[in-house]
Amino acid sequence: MKFGKRLKQQMQETLPGWRDKFLSYKELKQLVRQISSSPTQSNGSLGYGKAEKEFVYLLNNEIEKFNAFFMEQEEDFVIRHKELQQRIQRVVDKWGQNGSQASEANYKDEMAKIRKDIVDFHGEMVLLVNYSNVNYTGLAKILKKYDKRTGGLLRLPFIQKVLQQPFFTTDLISKLVKECESTIEAVFPAEDGKKTKEPKQTITVAEEGIFRNTVAALQTMQDIRRGSSTYGHFSLPPLNLPDSDLTQSIQLNSPIPII
Amino acid sequence: MEARPALSIQRSGAKQLSNMGMSGALSSSFPVLPAPLKETFPKLPDSQRVSIERELVTRPPTHARHLPSNSGLVGHIFSSSPGLSSDLHYSSLSPHEKHSRNSPFISQSSTNGASLPLTHNSHSGSLQSTTSSHYAKENTDFWHTDPLPSFLDFPVNTSIENGQAGSNSCNAAIASEEYSKWADQLIITDDDALTSNWTELLGDTGVMDLERKIAYQVSNSSPNSQPYQSEVHMQLPAPSGEIVPIATPSSSANSAPSKPRMRWTPELHEAFVEAVNKLGGSESATPKGVLKLMKVEGLTIYHVKSHLQKYRTARYRPDSSEGSSEKKLTTFEELSSLDLKTGIKITEALRMQMEVQKRLHEQLEAVQVCEHVYQDCPFSHFILSCWVAVSVIMVVCNTIFDL
Predict the structure, then answer these.
(1) How confident is the prediction for chain B on average, in pLDDT?
(2) Which residues form the SPX domain (chain A) (predicted)?
(3) Alpha-helical segments (H) within B139-204
(4) What predicted TM-score, i.e. pTM, was given to this entire model?
């Protein structure tokens, strides 16, 4: 499947507030087509056509857009990360075994809420890393197209610049993700007995949400890595990839209409 | 826009390559290509640098638009300071480096030949003449011509602080001696263009209040204290209009023009939380107070204000991050877990969700590393180009010696 289509699917499946924050891949592609179709100046001057100017302008704007959105989300995550930890501490202190008002029912109740929130939180952060990845890939592809079509050398310096951009440097988010995982493992230890109960039937993820988005993203990633060029339906055929057993058991309830 | 010079340099490199032909001339063209690239690279991160610089000084968007001719100058200032952006990473800033932070700034500008002696006390005189001449230059149609006194008479109570009006708080808002001295000279100058610039510069209401406060204080000229040193100090270069990291036309045309972007790290957030707690919690803490306590160079009240807002939201609506959309999602999540045909309990659903998320993250990390190292490593490109150059030279030498 072509990247453009994949990107569209991702955008469709993503959290509603994120949809307009992705790369305007189609627009950029159109500009590249415009540039390559109009002949370059024959006098050898360094003049730039209108389309080229637009192209570079749009690229820079897109990068600004990514950065702004990414850093905003990152800031939120930093805050929520700390908050969740404090929340857990408060619940443990209050309702836990040795808490001030030890109460198992309350404790379990509160912990269940926290568990849900923290798992969603984890998911959102991973989705942000995915967001960064998808947009980076798009940029790399469009720059490659540009260079190929126009003979320019825009790609290398631009990609260098992109690599330094805040939206690409996802180290902090990854760190938070790992910390989140260890918190979850510590607070909600996996119960070994139930682990063997892998559901055989497929589970349908009906509604919009973080889970659906991560499933979609994961399936897309697997697709990319598999190098498959055909992609018609979200339920994957059996593969020998290690993740296949997991994603095989999850299915998004309707194929995403490709606009 | 900042990319244009880069493009032109690249193009010249490309054109030279194509003109000379790829084969024999490759070795000679290589010295050409990296050089423009070197020029290009420091310029290219301009947008990032500009945005970091924008964070340094809180400036309203109108300011950006009204000084378009500065963009070239500003770009020039920053083009040879590639290390500057790393210096300006906020999380590692120390509170006591008042001027040291500005000096790389300024020394860069002076090396670049920009006439901006905006530094310490001794220079404030020359600064004043520079700025006033600069303002005279910049005096175009859209400057207002409000008289000076009315400007200074603006009410001081701001929206930024919660009800802390009055001259006492204003006194506290004054930063350093240098600032008031310099600003005094600025204001006393009775230069219409200069004063009118203030009203124009302070177009944005949010920043305007703060600026009014500062200007009001300047007129009182009571230079005491510590508290807003870092805050106002950052405002110091702003009115000069030259060092201000004005958004280049391309970025100022963005949807969120010069909204100062700050990258909050957990450490910085820790400091923030500590300050908030000292002030009695998120509800009673004020941005001004928090800023004061945090003592982080480069942090503006604007940053603190928006962060405090986010913080309050996160605390009192723990299951929603950015308002209603998140809340809807959690409801959907609940529904979807109830919808599961197999009737798996919620914990199982969550466990599976975690699995998917973990896998996705693993894959993303792997890809990230690949992209960074393999595809676009400049070093590998450099090595490759060196290798090609050497082999071409060898071929040429062989040819020569064979003749």
Answers:
(1) 55
(2) 1-160
(3) 148-152, 167-173, 177-188, 192-201
(4) 0.55
